[in-house]
Amino acid sequence: MPKLQWADPSVALEECILSILVAIARHSPICAQAIMKCDRLVELIVQRFTMSEKIDILSLKIKSVVLLKVLARSDRQNCIVFVKNGTFQTIIWHLYHCTSSIDQWVKSGKEKCKLSSTLMVEQLRLWKVCIQYGYCVSYFSDIFPSLCLWLNPPNFEKLIENNVLREFTTISMEAYHVLEALARRLPNFFSEKYLDSREPGLAGNESEAWSWSCAVPMVDLAIKWLGSKNDPFISKFFLSRKGIKNDFVFEGISLAPLLWVYSAILKMLSRVVERIIPQDIMTQIGSDQIVPWIPEFILQVGLEIIKNGFLSFADASDMNPKTSLSGGNSFVEDLCFWREHGEFEMSLASVCCLHGLILSIVNIDRLILLANTESQAYPPKYVNSSREGEILRVGMFKTSLMEQRSMLDLFTKKIALECDSLQLIETFGRGGPAPGVGIGWGVSGGGYWSLAVLLAQNDSAFLMSLVEAFHTIPTLNELTAQESLTFQSINSALAVCLVLGPRDIGLIEKTMEFFIQAPILYNFNLYIQRFIQLNGKLKQFGWKYSEDDCLIFCRTLRSHYKDRWLTPKGSTSVKNKSNLSDRTFKSGRVSLDTIYEESDETNRMAQGCICLTVQWGYQRLPLPGHWFFSPISTICDSKHAGHQKSDAQSIMQESSDLLDVAKSGLFFILGIEAFSAFLPDDFPKPVLSVPLIWKLHSLSVVLLTGIGVLDDEKSRDVYEVLQDLYGQRINEAMSCRLPADIMENNAKHLLSQPENKKSNIEFLMFQSEIHDSYSILIETLVEQFSSVSYGDVLYGRQIVLYLHQCVESQTRLAAWNALNSARVFELLPPLEKCLADAEGYLQPIEDNEAILEAYVKSWVSGALDRSASRGSVAYLLSLHHLSSYIFHSYPVDNLLLRNKLSRSLLRDCSHKHHHKEMMMNLILYTKPSTHLIAGQKGVDTSIGRSDVEKRLEVLKEACEKNSSLLTVVEELGSSTKGKLSAM
């Protein structure tokens, strides 16, 4: 780059260089700063910008403005430099040039209009960046005259006739975006500072404030745009886009540019109304206060929304649905239609328009509700219709409740479907792909930067605004009291969190706070009881959590989720390997370390951020599908957290905190599982999209917090119900022979796989899917089980889960070896008390050589002796699989292993006479009947003498003519036949 400072390239080459510089600047603030260090390079770009007015270099000017905009956005200091050295004024000088009329503008030709529009849009965006940092607000008075043409509704017919509708509306849209940014700089309308002085001043930190005397006329211009919706020409345009009325005039013309303007206007109006409502009321603090009066321009905005058919209003007295006051379909209905059936830009513009409309009407309703109507005539004198006044008095949201509920149903289903389809797009780990290098970066489906994700994120933002409105706007209609609304809202919030990314941390935190409320958690008591009754096979609770318990859960869960998912990771966290849940992608993938991306979130400036960037390295977004299991799936081992021996008090406090988080998490997860059962069948449910393996893994990890979670009566009951519930899921999966990557929500709908495919049975791949070193977790669990659990049944059956035949062979082997080393086989529960059906532990017959040898090793070492006497599942499993393999495996390939195992058992029997009874049980063993584990020691009365003879022959064959072993077989044969006769 230093060499470019002295280059004198051609126009074409200069344009290429600028494109490269823009891409570099967008990569990260560090790269942007490298460009800023080349002072002469920036000066040269500004000089070239002012050199010529020829049309053939307008594209060069556009790229120059884009580069300066990216540099200004990357760091506040860069913005200050551009303002103080005059660069900003030089670059935006086109904004001061007035265009007298549309006729004058279109005479220059389509191409010139397109280039001038693009240049003006980029200049407005540069100005908006400066406004967001609190600078250049005072420029408004000088620039406003040249913006009047674009802020007023145009002659649409003339624009369409000259095919420049998009060019004009793009400028209008960006101009209203600038006004929205300016509206954020308004002082509160009723603040003492504003009431004392109506002049613009400083808002602290040398940031400029906008004046209400400038803002109110802009609202009047916006109201004109709202009225333009009923323009006959626009009405025909809308109908043509719905296919109701085809008109050649609109052939090939997109409606999206016009919707973008409406969206920008509505969001600007909502921001203005927001600055009128006192801040403490906006944050629901001191909400018993009222505002002194309602500014008339706000009521005018509400009337325009009512009169121009933006909503379908019911009768305020009986709430019966009626058409919009303008007749025909409401604008909301049209927008929902275009969101469903339009192409991408139309869909995106429609949902943005809906979002702006909801924000506007909710803020206006809230302001009217807070107004002291006794101090001002109501309805206002310019309200001609008594019904219009009644709608304003009751509230636009309440009187359009039927339509709002239809929108809620539509977008709840849509975001849940989008959530399912977007789950696997992130293949670069939590860091995500680098910004500024194009869309998708090779990811199937487009990746995080795809249009599908962009649309889903806008759907999510709108949906949460709609949900919040339903739960905050007072209504008299019993529709909002239905449980289904709460079910849908929580389900939607869970889905929304899966779609949003690093730029949406504020919205994610707000969404989490919404569904982690004490009233919702308290209602989980009812949902859980109903769910357990509906299931029939789960343990009934004789208790429920109190309101105080739910308040504690609420605080604990909010704190946990914020710390776990929304707090940036420190560089030291990379070294901490104790948290197995951090491994959410396969080991072969590589994630980038420190990557940044732009953000337009102005509120970040208020929080002291020095630049409008979000760090992509060291963060955990977008969230994985199992994120809400983190209270029970993540732990912090104090030994790895830098504590010294003197920090005993800190460690004890940490253990107590972990226990509180675990208890809260268990109840919260069971509540989510419970309410999901009551959602309509056609509603996708995020909780059922969480892989079953993560749920089972979470139940194991929570035990690492200590036995305290099982000592508490309520948490123990919740834990047991979750075990039983997931055991049922295992049974369903086993019956369908599901593939390894199966998830719960489609388990019931897949065809059964061939019986002989063992790989189809092993669908719980803990080592492959959770962590390569999963055996360490199992060893820790077994160690704790042997030392502090004293053979707790729930703890024991969670460990026995790893011996289930649906678990991958490496994990089964690791679990058995850990139990063998700890000598705790006898502490395990009997088979009938284990997780899932007994059949899953017994079938198919074990054929893994390492596992069979491990069974024999435990047998001959004496590790199974007490297990045999106590009826533990460990002895029955070894007995079942060894007997089945030795006496029922006929392939020639298995003969060597079968003979090897048999000889080991016979030698052991010859040296340890107390194992003779166990060996006889091996010979007489037959598979227990379903639900009746007959003879926990392995003897069943259904075996015949001929079968015993055949088994003895197998053992003799395995002896390979070894006389001592043959003698053992003869002795066993005599004893076994005698025992069989005595039965």
Automatic annotation (TrEMBL):
Which branch of life, at top level?
A: Eukaryota
Which PANTHER family does this one have? TRANSCRIPTIONAL ELONGATION REGULATOR MINIYO
Stated name of the protein: RPAP1/MINIYO-like TPR repeats domain-containing protein
Extract the InterPro entries matched here.
MINIYO, TPR_RPAP1/MINIYO-like
**Which biological process annotations from GO are given for this protein?**
cell differentiation
Task: Extract the Pfam families matched here.
Answer: TPR_RPAP1 (PF25766)
Signal sequence, renumbered to the chain:
none
